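W.,

You were right to be curious about this one. When I first looked at the sequence I had no strong expectations either way, so I just let the prediction run and decided to look at it fresh. Below is the sequence, 249 residues in total, followed by the output.
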Amino acid sequence: MARISKTSSSKDAGAPLADRVALVTGGSRGIGRAIALRLATMGARLAICGRDAKTLETAAAELRSASPQPFSRVADVSRPADVKTLIEEVEATLGPISILVNNAGIGLFGPAHEKTEEDWNRVLDTNLKSVFLVSRAVAPSMIRHGRGDIINISSLAGRNTFAGGGLYCASKWGLQGLSACMAEDLRDYGIRVSLVCPGSVATEFSGHKPKLATKALLPEDVAHAVAMLVTQREGSFVSEVQMRPLRKV
């Protein structure tokens, strides 16, 4: 019977992502920060980006306790020039990206007929266009290396409608379609594209926390789903994870 060395066993158990570089967009707060911390504790070399320099530095400092040299950069991932610079700097510093978590997102809520074109552009550019831009920038390297995980953080709002959710739902319904088509385009190259669709999460995403945080998901719950997706056997593929609080809000 073959013996498993302590070194190999320890690496598999404690650092299953030790040979991988992960980029989490919108990684400075909330769900993104929780995902980045989880992947760092699993051994990945971490890169995060966000729009607010102060919040980003706070998150990077927290990451240093789990990852020796986390990379952080202020970037607006809805802008092609920012995306190009971000990807080039991450790969020059850490190596080829093999895990991409498209988490950057915003929510503007209210009746669609009361919103402006600027509101529409802001939500769709952040929640949908950014996924296209960053995924497009990372995919060629993943294709060359024959593996990769692209995980898009969506929402149950990508499958359900509600009053005041016109702009947000439009962006997330679009993300459902984009992700499913990307999955078909890339799977033959050994690249998995997955969606994580959480329900209500206890963050300040919409400007306030849920009224009953005890009946909401935690950011760490979403991070757990991402960890599951990136540690699947290479021959398996979970296309979508839907998540709900155990108790209804």
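Here's what jumped out at me. Helices lie at 6-14, 30-41, 53-63, 80-93, 117-145, 166-186, 219-230. And, maybe more interesting for your project: The two ends are 52 Å apart (CA to CA).

Coffee later to discuss?

I.
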